[in-house]
Amino acid sequence: MNIQAKALLVACLLAATPATAEQLELEPVDVTHTPEPDPTSQDTDTLEQGASNDTLGSYLDDLPNVDSASYGEAVGRPVVRGMSGYRIKILQNDHEVSDLSAMSQDHAVAVAPQASERIELLKGPASLLYAAQAGGVVRISDALDDLFSKPGLHTELSGDLRAEPSSAGATAHLHYANNRWAAHLGGLSRDSDPYESGDGQVVRDSDLSTQQAQLGFGWRVGDRTEVQFGATGLTKDYGIPNSTAEQTRIELQREDYRGSFRYLPDSLWLSSAQLSVHGSDYLHDETEDGRQDGLFGQQVLGSTLELEWWAGSWTGDTRLGVSRSKLRVCHEHGGCDDFRDAVRTGGPLGESIAQSVQDTGLPYSHGHPMPDTEDEGLQISTVVHRMVSADHALSLGSHLQWRTLTPDPDNIQEQWVHPESLDPDHYRRQSDQALSLSVGLGKQVSGNALLWDVSVSYLERFPSADELYWNGFHHATDTYIFGNVDLDKERSVNLDVELVLKHDEHRAQLSSFYYRFDDYIFQDQGFAADGSPLVDPFHLSEVWFTRQTDARFYGASLRYENHLDVHRGWPVTLWAQVDALSATTAGGEHLPRTAPTNGALGVVYDTPRWLASATVKRVLRSDNLAPNEDETEGYTWLSARLQRNWTLQDQAWQLWIMGENLLDADARNHLSVLKDTAPLPGRQVIAGIKWAY
């Protein structure tokens, strides 16, 4: 059954839902408590105060068991409970961010988190409405998410400066909405020079330039109908501080368009229906000493139907989505100014690959690293909730997905095409389906109490196109990577437990997890029989293989807060947090780049006029090392912030100064493949101002 036929079948099933719901008699549900605020959903202003830079990973780094696979100013993708890459879905206004940051850690996430309004980390049943990822879903919302949510005229300007290394940033927003019309205009610009590490060395090619523009328009046709349009354009130009002698740079561009039609019916079972169309065009090039050696492009077109409904004591959200994307890749020294099909002379394909197998036993390639691929997808997901008592809530989630992946090797130079003599089905079309389920139960009450939330999930994930087909050198990370076309679906059973104890001024939170994987997909460094690292014959770089194994992840985060204002009347909060995790194969070997244990102590003074905070974080030396993996020394990171707030009539002003790595520690991020050539920045002092009307 093709994608279109499946979409029609699912639409028919959805259309049949009212007939079932109308036979149910609605029962009133009284909610008498105020739920505990979700610590994984915070406004961007709050997250920005604790962020050491403007990457998404840095914004989320203080959440329980969340780390950032970062180097410097440009790149920082969140790593959640040891889950990285494709195991974390990143959404902007409920649509997947079209970029290639999950493919490699040198690729920046194609979002500007400082221009958003709220960032949310979903896991358990709630995350299955959008995706089935073991690390959950990062949901970024900005002004284009709902143009009518802020009535009236709003203006905001902000800027910041840093002396050494020099950097400057500015954001501007103009927003207007009334009962019928809404419009939004926003912009962002940031430029940073190469920074110095804690040992006083300038990190070459660590500069960054970012620009973003947003435009939105909304129209309420009537009391129950509204139409919204939005567009976002983002560019990032940054260097890659790797070990190659030539300067490596990446310039990415992302254009995103969205139109939605929302209807609020007068129905006994349906509260909202929204149909949206989303298109995205992503392009980034990689240059070596000014030569355009690599080009990556991804175009996505998708449509979703979202329904909010209730039946009896159940409330639910259902989401039906169809999408088509095309990924194109070029790798050719100085020859990637555009995408094109390779020349065919009629001779045998893959002669050089076959020669590499004969000489080395491995199919090394120096051509385009993977075929162009087309991905057609269909998903239907539903999340339902019910109060089973006055304090206890039950949640159920399901996510059903179909995918057809079609590779086209016409872009690969003929001598580097994988020859049929080695594998006649190497570029086969792959169709599969995945089913994921989750159940959660929680207790949420106000006042002094023990609150808890437990979820169990069974998740299935398709291997990505590059995990299947990549075969080539990656200039930015200076590594050679082999994909594996025989990868199976990755399956996991996830247990997440959250406990919160509140008593007067005390609050303690324990977040723990245990994930069991079958056929976990990871990259593992290759070694020869004598124990020496394998190197590719073209660049003499490390060789990494894409493998599968059963794996176990477990860990916990413990946080304690003492709010001194409860009894002493002091607007001060003292807090401490410790994060630890373990990631091993079924055989007991540690997986590469496991985040080391870390702990932090902090103090916050918060009044309407003043905000002052200080945090000291200790990251321990990495000791959970994969075979032949180098350890990373621990470090201590001290940060502080002082902020003055005041209001003049209807205008809000904010003046702040902050310091990062005030001890000037020589710090390296164990999660980064570029930790040795791109240590973290040394001491930085930044000042900024914000005006809002």
UniProtKB/TrEMBL annotation:
<keyword id="KW-0798">TonB box</keyword>
<feature type="signal peptide">
    <location>
        <begin position="1"/>
        <end position="21"/>
    </location>
</feature>
<feature type="region of interest" description="Disordered">
    <location>
        <begin position="27"/>
        <end position="59"/>
    </location>
</feature>
<dbReference type="InterPro" id="IPR039426">
    <property type="entry name" value="TonB-dep_rcpt-like"/>
</dbReference>
<dbReference type="InterPro" id="IPR036942">
    <property type="entry name" value="Beta-barrel_TonB_sf"/>
</dbReference>
<dbReference type="InterPro" id="IPR012910">
    <property type="entry name" value="Plug_dom"/>
</dbReference>
<comment type="similarity">
    <text>Belongs to the TonB-dependent receptor family.</text>
</comment>
<dbReference type="Pfam" id="PF07715">
    <property type="entry name" value="Plug"/>
</dbReference>
<keyword id="KW-0732">Signal</keyword>
<protein>
    <recommendedName>
        <fullName>TonB-dependent receptor</fullName>
    </recommendedName>
</protein>
<keyword id="KW-0812">Transmembrane</keyword>
<dbReference type="Pfam" id="PF00593">
    <property type="entry name" value="TonB_dep_Rec_b-barrel"/>
</dbReference>
<keyword id="KW-0472">Membrane</keyword>
<feature type="compositionally biased region" description="Polar residues">
    <location>
        <begin position="39"/>
        <end position="56"/>
    </location>
</feature>
<feature type="domain" description="TonB-dependent receptor-like beta-barrel">
    <location>
        <begin position="199"/>
        <end position="662"/>
    </location>
</feature>
<feature type="domain" description="TonB-dependent receptor plug">
    <location>
        <begin position="44"/>
        <end position="137"/>
    </location>
</feature>
<dbReference type="InterPro" id="IPR000531">
    <property type="entry name" value="Beta-barrel_TonB"/>
</dbReference>
<keyword id="KW-1134">Transmembrane beta strand</keyword>
<dbReference type="GO" id="GO:0015344">
    <property type="term" value="F:siderophore uptake transmembrane transporter activity"/>
</dbReference>
<dbReference type="InterPro" id="IPR037066">
    <property type="entry name" value="Plug_dom_sf"/>
</dbReference>
<keyword id="KW-0813">Transport</keyword>
<keyword id="KW-0998">Cell outer membrane</keyword>
<dbReference type="GO" id="GO:0009279">
    <property type="term" value="C:cell outer membrane"/>
</dbReference>
<dbReference type="GO" id="GO:0044718">
    <property type="term" value="P:siderophore transmembrane transport"/>
</dbReference>
